[in-house]
Amino acid sequence: MSSAVDHPLVLSVDAKPYAFSFDPKHTALLVIDMQRDFLLAKGFGDIQGGNLEAVQASIAPTKKLLEACRGAGMTMVHTREGHKADLSDCPSSKLVRQSAAPNNAQPSLVIGDKGEMGRLLVRGEYGHDIVDELRPFPGEMVIDKPGKGTFWNTNILHMLKARAITHLIVSGVTTECCFATSIREANDRGFECCGIEEATSGYNDACFKKATLDMIHWSQGLFGFVANLQPLLDVLTPLSPPAHPAGSTPPQTPRAFDGDLRLLSLQKAYKDGLSPVSVVEAIYDKIEAYKSIDPAVWIYLEKKENALEAAKALLTKYLDRSALPSLFGIPFSVKDSIDIAGLATTTACPPLAHVPSVSAVVYDKVISEGALFIGKTNLDQLATGLTGCRSPYGIPHSVFHKDYISGGSSSGSAVSVGAQLVTFSLATDTAGSGRVPPGFNGVVGYKPTRGTLSFRGVTPACLSLDCVSLIALTVADARTLWQVLEDHDPLDPYSKPTIAFERHINSIGRQAKTFKFGVPPAEALLLCSLPARRMFNEAIRKLQDIGGVLTPTDWSPFEKAGRLLYDGTFVSERLASLPADFLERNRNALHPVIVELMDAVVARQSTAVQAYRDMQAKAIYTRQAGSVFSYSATGIDVLVVPTAPTHWKISEVLEDPIRKNSHLGEFTHFGNVLDLCAVAVPAGTYPVKELSGVEEDEGGLPFSITFLSGSRLDAEMLELARRFEQSVEGSKKIA
Ligand code: TIU
Asked: Which N-terminal stretch is annotated as signal sequence (predicted)?
């Protein structure tokens, strides 16, 4: 796949103290607090005695700036200052300091008091919202901030990191207050900021504005840059798609579907007029044809008429192609352990099948963003296994070779994406189910930090270690899905807030290019096949080529945590996730390998004492792993491992199902035990004969590496994975 959506483009504008250079893909426009309360008569600013004429003069230039940045496809962030209705997030320093001044000549209204546009600076009130001229488009970020600065008590740092933003163009009101504070805060967090003179203004225009802007760029750019609007418009405007002249209609011939199912490519094609109906038609033809190659991908396929109807409904619902929801017309599959209201969830285990009345949170979310449901995919029974050979619905094979396994448990999900029947799949990952199958099918498998995507509505395999995973065609696609799905869910007991701690970013210079990575020691890699070892060494070289510094890493917490998963008591949680007596009552209806595995767990007669010892060991290893990814001289940014040590043939797994399975998890088992995030990324292919030793064997098999990082360091990890993916694409083009 060529990387059509990702080419670096560095723009440069005249600025103080020197030219400001930025790549629009890594730059966001920050529009600070252009709210009625600050800009219009009888608002908070007016009541405080602010110069309204001065601040209103910034609306028109800000609109021009907004349109140019939107046209260039940049990330847009609008902020609104304000408080909860009960003012519980408003400190006394904001509420009473000014009104308490002994010589206060201003009217005594404070935050929360009733003004003519509603309660002053209170969320949900008319005056709190952004002025009509600058209204955010659907999908643009709106940050509600309780402070003057944009970073205090908001998730903006996380959101910007998630989008790999390193540079900020800053506008809005007031120059002396929220604009300046936000630039100073952003500077501490590592962003390169450029304020736009005409697109900011203050209540003390003449005396403060110049001083505030000078303070930003003083001393060779103490806090950042300041530029004029026109030079910026000059470099951004050529990036806007051509506008249709007034009165004309868009091109009449419907755009044909070029077969590119990548999420970002489809988003662009839909903007340019492609119909989701054409996409549905094309993929059902492909799905039909693929049934003769592999009949074991789907457990339930949505009727084509239903999918077409859903596509047509999207067309009527969203008439404006410049304001589409983020997953408009994106086809996807769902692992059949994830609930969809009205459809059976089988978990590839007919005795456990049930028809839920409520869909999983993640399913509802992607549907509400316009995605198109295509079907439910096959999996290893009870989401237990890494092979794809443990389902009563058949054994899917790798999209690369009919004799080789697809991997499991998300077998059908990975094949549906690998064969390009859908753009993405909602799957799960407990011991590696969201990483191994994508690895065996040449696609991306991303397992966000546990608890950051809701697990509600998913049949558990091992509840305290389960998480939703995303299978996609590219890292950028996986990242987009993550941004749509990530949300704290108070009804999911394992949900955790997305913000762990603040870690600065590196926007420019050598630090922005380099990163530290660790790999397993040579003894651990001996488990790998010869081609896997050769390919892993090549991947290490590629990582070094893009600025990676191979750093000695303590492998022991990862190794020990991996063993804890199946050799310890945690595997008992798989039984705890099933109804009482389930095994006894359904023995004959279960897959024989699952029965063997569960019987072995029962036979261990694990005690509560052993379980507590394991929990304590888990806490120790998690702390040790955390220090491997720490923010320190010895810490690494990512651990890089082969996703799986080898490829098995289906026949090999059938002969020795349990041992072959556990071998596959050597580099995945520890991921959820240690609360890490992980993403498996394709790293090239090698000839089948290199593995089999049989000269006549034709075809190739995919190699994959997995990046892992600490809890809630997803954004940083994904950006490195994306850079690696880009280097693999680059080397393919040269080859
Ligand atoms: N008072 C004042 O100048 N400004 C604010 O309180 N907020 C912003 O600047 N947005």
From this structure: none
> 278 catalytic, yes or no?
no
What CATH architecture is 11-239? 3-Layer(aba) Sandwich (3.40)
User: What are the b/e assignments for 21-54, b being 16+ CB within 10 Å?
Assistant: ebebbbbbbbbbbbbbbbbbeebbbbbbebbbeb
Percent of the chain's residues with pLDDT above 70: 96
Residues with CB under 6 A from ligand 1: 33, 38, 48, 81, 148, 173-174, 177-178, 203
Relative to beta strand 700-709, strand 638-642 is antiparallel
Judge if pTM exceeds 0.90: yes
| DSSP letter (8 states) at residue 17 | S
Q: pLDDT tens digits for 72-97? A: 999 999 999 999 999 999 999 998 88
Segment 323-329 shows an average pLDDT of 94
E strand map for 284-435: 298-301, 331-335, 372-377, 424-429
Residue of the CA atom closest to atom 7 of ligand 1? 178
Superfamily of the domain at 263-485: Amidase signature (AS) domain (3.90.1300.10)
Contact 374, 333 (CB under 8 A): yes
Q: Output the CA 173–ligand 1 centroid distance in Å.
A: 7
Q: Which fold has domain 515-732?
A: Amidase signature (AS) enzymes (3.90.1300)
Residue 133 and residue 57: Cα distance in Å, rounded? 13
Residues 6+ apart with CB under 8 A from 567: none
Do the domains 11-239 and 263-485 sit in the same CATH topology, yes or no? no
Q: What is the three-class DSSP state of 63?
A: helix
Question: What are the backbone dihedrals phi and psi of residue 540, each rounded to the nearest 5 degrees, phi first?
Answer: -60, -40
C-alpha 52/C-alpha 39 separation (Å) is 6
End-to-end CA gap in the chain: 13
Per-residue pLDDT, averaged over 192-216, amounts to 93
Query: Which residue's CA lies nearest to atom 2 of ligand 1?
Result: 177
